[in-house]
Amino acid sequence: MTRRTAVKLALVGLTGAAVGVGSIPLIRSIPATAPRRFRHFSDDDAALLIEICEQIIPGDDLPGATETGAIHFIDRQLGGRHRKHQPTYHRGLESFRQTCTQVYGRAFHELAPVQKIELLQAVETGRVPKELWPDVSAPAFFNVVLAHTMQSFYGSPRHGGNRGYASYRMLGLDQPVIAGQNRYPKA
Amino acid sequence: MALKHVNAVVVGAGAGGGVVAKELAEAGLSVVLLERGDWVSFEEHGQDELISQRTTVLGNAYGPDDRFPRMSEGAPGQWNRILPHEGGYGNNAACVGSGTVSYGAMAWRFSEQDFRMRSTYGRPEGSTLDDWPISYADLEPFYEKAEWEIGVAGDMSANPFAPPRQKPYPMPAFGQNREGEMLYAAAKRLGWHPFPIPMLRNSVRYGGRNACAHNRACCGFACPINAKNGTQNTVIPRALATGHCELRVRCVASEIVVDDHSRARGVRYFDAEDRPQYQTADVVVVSCAAIETARLLLNSKSKLFPNGAGNRHDWVGRNLQDHAYSGAWGLFEQETFDDVGPGATIAINDFNHGNAGLRGGGALCNEFIRLPYLFTGVRPPGAPRWGKAHKDWQRNFYRRCVGIHGPVQEMPVAEMRVQIDPALKDHWGIPVARLSGQRHPDDLEVGAFLAARAEAWLKEAGAVQTWKAVAGRGSRPGQHQAGSCRMGNDPTTSVTDRHGRVHDIDNLYLADGSLHVTNGGYNPALTIMALGFWVGHHIAREWKGGRFA
């Protein structure tokens, strides 16, 4: 943390925030050759959300949120079951962007890995400049993104996330279950 | 065009209604069985955890859909409109078979004391606790019918707290999975009495259907091989096979018509094309589960019952109960998970009654398999919610985590209730149910007690870390909903008589969990089925041919 950042975070009550969650994640960006068009996100918002989701479920030796399609899950559900959260995303992402700029003077994707986690912890706990979150509170935004990222990563691939049942493989769950092959019924 | 008059119309094809329809059809009555949902199958949603009956974040695989909103009270006086997949709705499945399609299928008989809770413990302040007007002995033959006609696998020989039975289970009990074996040994060391959970599930081929294949996605899902026994694959097909019963799906009842002579004439409903229909019948049976049964009665206003059918003394909708589920989780060094579904295999009844200083208690059982998304909510305090640490936690503990929980028998509370919302209407223009109230404080005490026993059990089994999960006061009754139209001998303090007949309306019956005076320290499905046989038997016995009573 630079001295300048420390001063700014101190101003919003974020002093001494320990970076306890996670190690350094791999930085994954959208491949430049495959620009995505999303139904509910501008390309800029999508890129930012992908970065946030990747902090929540980082890729390591096994795939994380980006690689398993979290953005596709969320984009699809914002037109379906999670329709009511459209404003949470659109306003929350804008507040998040402004918070990042004000505190770090840089865009989220330009932050060091520890800074990304530090900022997300501040958003999670509401230790952010309140005036930058007029429409949706920072913790409310974080909790929605967290829940949807988890749904994406652990739910069925038919909704756009959990590509290749990556999370099931991570947990050692055979999928698909094939009767007579990977099932061991006991009487 | 008027529909052909029938002897009986049964509203709701779930655990209670499916049984009643079969009993009446076999007795020779012409029956129309109305169900607001449809036939459902495993194939439609498969093993999709996010659209199941246990995790409904993307919808309710087995219904109801968004056409059935409700209101629920948050802070006092603050009402929230809630959809079926959202928390606080109090969801019960809406399909042929209802919750018996997707349940975990525990097949409990209530304890003898569960039928006389007030005599056993006295009524605590703030509760409407009472005895049932029937005893365990009255219901015993009907439990037996439910076990044999629908199909239960069990063995109570190791359970000294089991109520007496005349006949053994029709199928042998299931064996233990890995965590069940571990917990069995630990319970024995503690001097407790572990035994296999009785299940409405085939341990061997039964009823023309196959034995269970121990599917991971069982509780919350239909069975892909039809080895789980509900009303949809047992009594309802048998009712239809008599030729006397017609099942009409996607039919939403709006009103029981009660005439000026205090007799039910029939049921108004909207059919699958949303057209209003009126089915007249000699006898009407309502089996919509505690919330919707109360709603239908309250929406059935007539000259003699201006506040709703059977609601002369303002008891319809009150005493809504559920189970204040409480227990504990434990983490282990060794792998405890063997992917043998449905997961719940072992129980004790040592703490259902006789707990010093407490009223009642509940069974303790190991938990059904936690599918991956649900498991993200299973966490000791302070465990990482996200990031690399979350991922590591999942990897470390998904296969090393055991849960033990119990359905705490709740103290009924008058203000825990179903009312009709004055403004909100559903898709068909029918006023919706609104839910309010809080649990009795006793429930939390019993919950804390059971959680401590669960934690001790896990520690004895070798858990390296444990934490308790005790129910709060505010949650809304869901799949175990009960009690809203209790039976009783005194018409001024109950809704029906001991046979489920609504006081003062001689040809209107209820047959579902709404009749429960108290909800037992057990999953209620088998008791609801037994009440279906009890009520159905009574109606058939009273049936004089061509005219009722």
Automatic annotation (TrEMBL), chain A:
Top-level taxonomic group: Bacteria
The protein's name in its UniProt record: Gluconate 2-dehydrogenase (Acceptor)
Organism lineage: Bacteria, Pseudomonadati, Verrucomicrobiota, Opitutia, Opitutales
From TrEMBL, chain B:
Domain Glucose-methanol-choline oxidoreductase N-terminal: from-to ranges: 136-324
Gene Ontology molecular function: flavin adenine dinucleotide binding; gluconate 2-dehydrogenase (acceptor) activity
InterPro entries associated with the record: FAD/NAD-bd_sf, GMC_OxRdtase_N, GMC_OxRtase_C
EC number(s) on file: 1.1.99.3
Record bears the keyword Ribonucleoprotein: no
Pfam family, one: GMC_oxred_N
Source taxon at top rank: Bacteria
Domain Glucose-methanol-choline oxidoreductase C-terminal: residue ranges: 417-532
Record-stated family: Belongs to the GMC oxidoreductase family.
Name of the protein in question: Gluconate 2-dehydrogenase (Acceptor)
Species in which this protein is naturally found: Opitutus terrae (strain DSM 11246 / JCM 15787 / PB90-1)
